[in-house]
Design goal:
alpha/beta, five-stranded mixed beta barrel, 37% strand, elongated
């Protein structure tokens, strides 16, 4: 199937859009231009910075006492300190640290205006 797609793209002078590593390598070998959609998605994600305020829905308790967990639209996990009383609600949170993870990034935040989270 990959060979057919590459041949078709080559004959139409088209570019391939794919998430398939092997298809991309085959296209590259045959001189067909291609774009990895996963890489494009990562490149277009807005960068989050320390101190940024954002809204997140808290969906479950975190590992540590008092924590609550939510998820960004891109699937990144957000851990909110002292958020346990707000599970099931949308809250405003402020980023205090960001760590890379296998799924993208893990964001640690505090409730906006929560003096106990400082």
């Amino acid at each position: 199937m990959d060979a057919k797609l590459v041949f078709l793209a080559q004959s139409m002078r088209a570019k391939l859009l794919t998430t398939d590593y092997n298809l991309a390598k085959m296209a590259e070998f045959h001189g067909v231009h291609w774009l990895n959609l996963s890489a494009l998605s990562r490149a277009l994600r807005p960068e989050m910075v320390l101190g940024e305020v954002f809204e997140v829905e808290l969906v479950k308790a975190g590992k540590e006492p008092g924590q609550a967990v939510g998820y960004l639209e891109d699937g990144s996990m957000v851990v909110v300190a002292n958020g346990h009383e707000h599970i099931g609600k949308r809250v405003d949170a402020e980023i205090i640290s960001i760590l890379p993870s296998a799924g993208g990034k893990m964001v640690f935040a505090k409730l906006l205006g929560d003096p106990a989270s400082r």
